[in-house]
Amino acid sequence: MTAPFEPACDCLLCPRLLAFRLDNRRKQPSWHNAPVPAFGDLSSRLLIVGLAPGLRGANATGRPFTGDWAGDLLYDTLLAQGLAHGHYGERRDDGLTLSDCRVTNAVRCVPPGNRPTTAEAKACRPFLEKEIAAMPRLSVILAIGGFAHDSALAALGARKSAHPFAHGAEHALKPGLVMVDSYHCSRLNTNTGRLTAEMFAAVVTRCRELLARNS
Fold it and tell me: How many helices (H) and strands (E) does the chain have?
């Protein structure tokens, strides 16, 4: 049975995403090609929110941020900071486990050109809302990119104008819950120098500090 915060594997909410998913299923029948479920325990205090599955990453492997450059940087950083254990092997069955953190996406299906529409973000938002509500110990959200930032704000009923996105910014969303922003750990951002491994590590370190402060 699918959890209430995960779309069904044959989700029909977004016609464009459904058509793209089915087209990829025909081209790559061995790939996941379905909504990608979150990774990590609901008892975690840190929720990492990304944009959407990558075509050859999470859409292929079935695990968020797994199989592409963004995942290399994310999981290497989590491993280095004790928020993950094991070995990241760019596949769902690599044995990697997360410690006190959970990784999800604002939109659960791969979008063409890695760009969900506003309507698609709105259609998928209830899943993020329910996921957040199902995390009783949640105290820090790490928003990876502006799209994730906006989606998390909307899921929590917070005004975007009161919480502008900026790398490293911190937003007190309600008592005991802080959101921290990061530029997306995409190859484009790292290749252009907009985001370095050191910058991303500093943001994750800050999330760990906030977790320690709230413990």
Answer: 7, 8
Residue 133, phi then psi, degrees to nearest 5: -65, -25
> Average pLDDT, stretch 186-190?
91
Tell me the CA end-to-end span of the chain in Å, nearest whole number.
Answer: 33
Domain ranges for the chain? 43-213
pLDDT tens digits for range 109-141? 999 998 999 999 999 999 999 999 999 999 999
Residues listed for the chain: 215
The DSSP line for 124-167 is HHHHHHHHHHT-TT--EEEEESHHHHHHHHHHTT--GGGS---T
The residue type found at 39 is F
Residue (of 39, 35, 34) closest to 66 by Cα position: 39
Among residues 88, 98, 75, 81, the alpha carbon closest in space to that of 185 is found at: 75
How far is the C-alpha of 127 from the C-alpha of 35, rounded, in Å? 11
CA distance 53 to 203: 22
Q: What is the pLDDT of residues 142-182, one digit of tens each?
A: 999 999 999 999 999 999 999 999 999 999 999 999 999 99
Contact call for residues 50 and 70 (beta carbons, < 8 A): yes
**pTM score, two decimals?**
0.96
In CATH, the number for domain 43-213 is 3.40.470.10
